[in-house]
Every structure is written in C-alpha cells, then in structure tokens.
Amino acid sequence: MASHRRPKQPSRTRVTVLTTAAAAAVALSANVANAAPSEKPSKDEVKAKVDKLYEEAEKATEKLDGAKEKQEKLQKEISSLQDNVARGQEDLNTLRDGLGSMASAQYRTGGIDPSVALFLSSDPDSYLDKASAMDQLSAQQVESLKKVQEKQRSLAQQRSEASEKLKDLADTRTELAKKKKEVQGKLGEAQRLLNSLTAKEKAALAAKEQERATRATERVNLGSSKGSGRAGSAFAAAQGAIGSPYVYGASGPSSFDCSGLTSWAYAQAGVSIPRTSEAQANYGTRIYSQSALQVGDLVIFYGDFHHVGLYAGNGQVLHAPHTGAVVRYEAIGNMPFQFGVRI
After folding, report:
1. Which residues neighbour 60 within 8 Å (Cβ) at sequence distance 6 or greater?
2. pLDDT of residue 19
C-alpha cells in the first residue's frame, strides 16, 4: 500500500524573504515606470551656457593674443642680438688678427735693451727713428688689447641677453600652446551644446541674434554720426569690416577677434595701438561717462577688460562679438561697460 505524506510547508523565514523580494521588485518596477525621463535643456538654457563658454574662450583668446605678440617681439629682439653678435665676432677676429701681426713684427725685430741698441748702432739717427716707431707700435698694441677686451665683454653680455630671451621665448611658446588648447576646448564644448539643439531651435536663436543686430544698426543710422580725425577714420575702416567673421587670434583684413578689429581699424588710420584689449584699456585717456563718448573711441567691457569695441554713436558699439558671429553693431547695455578710451 503506497504511503502518502503531506508536502513540506515552507518555513516562515523563507516566506518572509520571498515576500519582501517580490515587494521590492514591484516597487522598483513602479519607480521605473513613474520616473520622468531626464529633461533636455531648453534652447535658452543652452544659449546661456554657450554665451558663458564664449566669454571664457574670449578671455583665453586675449591671453593668447598677448602671448603671440610677446613671441613676435622676442623673435625680433633675438634676431637683432644674434646679428649684432655675428658682426661683433667679425670685428673681434679683425682686432685679434691685427694684434697678432704686430706681435709677429715685434718678435722679428728682437727685444734688446734700447741703450745697448743705441751704443751698437752705426747710425744713431736711424736708430732713433726706429725706436720712435717701436714706441708707436707698442701704444697701438695696448690700444688694440683694450679694444679686444671691450669687444669680448660686449659679446659676452649680448650672448647672455640672447640666451635669456631664448629661454623666455620657449616659455612663451609653451604658454601659447596652453592658451590655444584652452580656447579650442571652450569652443568645442560650446559647439557640442549647439549641436544638441534641433534645427528649429537653432533657427530661432539665429533669428533673435539677427533682430538684435538689426535694431542696433537702425539706432546707429538714426544717430548718423561719422566721427572725426583719426578716431573717425578708424571707425570708418571698422565699418568696412561689418559682416566679417570672428576668428580667435585674427587681426584682419578678412576676419577678426575683438582687439584684432580695433587694432586693425586704428592701423588703417595710421595709428599704432597695442594688440590686446587689456593693453588698449591702458593706452589712451579713459572716459567713464557713456554720454561723453565720441564715435571711434574704444569701449572696454567686463571687469578684467577682456572685450573691446568701437563706439558707434547713439548708445551702440561696433565690435567682433564671439566665435560664430560676425562684426556687427550692438547696444552697449548688452555687456558690462567699464569705460571708454580716447586714443
């Protein structure tokens, strides 16, 4: 006869564990189902982040421009020093050759005591002429030795100076590469953000930018002031660059960054001003009242002076804004005004 056994009932502990696990699984599923998908930033948020990145890139760009300017200056100074050293070495070789010729001539004539030479001479007058020549030769030797020593000291100093400048140049090139990498990094990040926008969002932002530029142009035309003197000529040159693209490190004639535009414009008017916005801020007479600005004055923005434009009249500035934009008019109030500079 078959035996029948009751099936073994699960333990109370096992039931509790299984129940808890099932409840956790149900809760997790509910949380996943109810979780809101990560929100994509709006076009305005992207625009704000991009503008911030452009500002940071421009700060680095001005440092880059300064390093480039320093590099060019050092290269010219080093080239001049090396030319001077080469010419000085030729002069030194000539002095040494002359000194060697005199020493050889003196050796050939002998070096006996003058009184003995006079006693032995059959022609005292002839001897006295020779003795006078020997005294003159000795004086020339002394003078030549002095010249050789002076030339050696000068060459040593110039070589030392050239060596220091070469070291400075190497450091400047390292800084240049660092700043260039920093600019490219900021611009790359900005581009990635812009690429995240839809075509419709990009078109909306572009239309807004165009509207701002159009309003600024209308206000400039309403003021219709052309400026005078060199400042007026510089402003006219900058007007001819309207529509040219912003390119970091560029100073014309077909592309510009902010200080590249202002330095190029003044160069067209026959005036040389520094290359960077920070240096330009400290170059002329500062004008702290916007109402006192005249067309063609430099206009400095931001506390660290990393942006500059040209006053266009009627509360507007003509400038190269940032990567992705072109040379255009813009209201001064769109950026933190610091002061104007009259060149």
Report:
1. 179, 182, 183, 186
2. 44
